[in-house]
Amino acid sequence: MNSDAHTGAYSAEEIQSWDQRTSMRPAPYRFAMARPAKGLNVADPLMARVPTSELVCHGKTSPNLPRDPEPDWVDWDLVERGQAVWKEQVARSFAGLGLALLSGFSIARFAEILFVNGYAKSGETAMQRYRATGFYVTDFYRSSLRDPKSKARRGIANVRAMHEWARRRSKKIFDQTKGEGVALCQLDMAEVQLGFSGICMEIIERDFGAGPISQEDAEAMAHCWRLIGYHLGIMDEYNVCRSLEDLRACVDDFMAFTPRRFQTMRPATAELRRTAMEGFGMETGLGTGFWHGLFLTYLHSAQYDLKQLTPEVVVHPGMGIVAHLYIQLFRFDTISAVMGRILLADRDAYEKDPDTAKRKAALRKSLARFHDVFVWRFTGMLYILRHLLLVLGLWRILRRAWRARLSFRQR
After folding, report:
1. Where are its TM segments located (predicted)?
2. Arithmetic mean of pLDDT, 196-214
3. H-helix segments, 17-174
4. How far apart are CA 164 and CA 175, in angstroms?
5. pLDDT given for residue 388 in this prediction
């Protein structure tokens, strides 16, 4: 995404005046995101009444958690269509979510909450927690969102309770008297919802070559996440998925401040990004080096100043080419579909045959190590050798031209 396309509504001075390093105040939105921003001091009133002993902690949930009634605006046919499209695009969407998350760590409010709640402890911890999130999302797309007892709805209840748990652990980070609001406020949840919906849809269309999603499918995808967001505790007045038009406007408004987020990142961002890429590398078997290259390639497509924005990410020579080839694979629907089936099968394996799933995970970790220690280093050597040969070839051409010139003069 070209960042320039999203900055026309704000002056450069207005954007530069906002600095996350000195305050946890959110971006000074004035357009589409101004509506969710009004929820800065609003948490989740329903979950606020639940005793801490009843809250979830990474997968263990009390059966006594309260739930909201179904909204009167829900269109179940549209929800099911949205689920079907998201499921069809699951491989592209998960790759997109990984990139959106690495970028989203630049949001100081988001990064500090994750850091306080232990997401940057190690690559292993990151892998386990983001894998659990991925499993929840696959359930959202495959299980009934209409049945309150379904796997999807139980998962939503788990996530909502985990949010409340994290909110209580993070409350000291924010100072309401300084305009910083509360932890995991309605705005924070709306920005996360934006990453899972509108931003992910843009990555699917633009970076992974799916082409324009039809108006009908895009509306269904947005409506699906409107319902998911509602049951996660996002009140309707702050929900960014109330309509496709509203969702796209919110993406544009949010993206206007993304370069500034990168410029004013906190130390927690670098730690979260480092451990997340280690975790992603282990989970995919492709190694940390691959994810460094993929993330930088993604940012390059957004035309950001990479030297200024990502000093903590070091890329082996040649990894840009590898990442570009990987992205090109997603342009083929058949390959994307196969990757999607593998993802869904992996989620099922953890439930039906956890021992086998754990052995496969251990194998992927070993494969990731092999890629980082041997494959990507060898790729870098080949890349450097190729450039040396090109330089040598150019030198020979220039030398021959110089000799030909001297010979011509002597005549």
Report:
1. 374-395
2. 92
3. 34-37, 45-48, 76-88, 90-104, 108-116, 123-142, 151-169
4. 18
5. 87
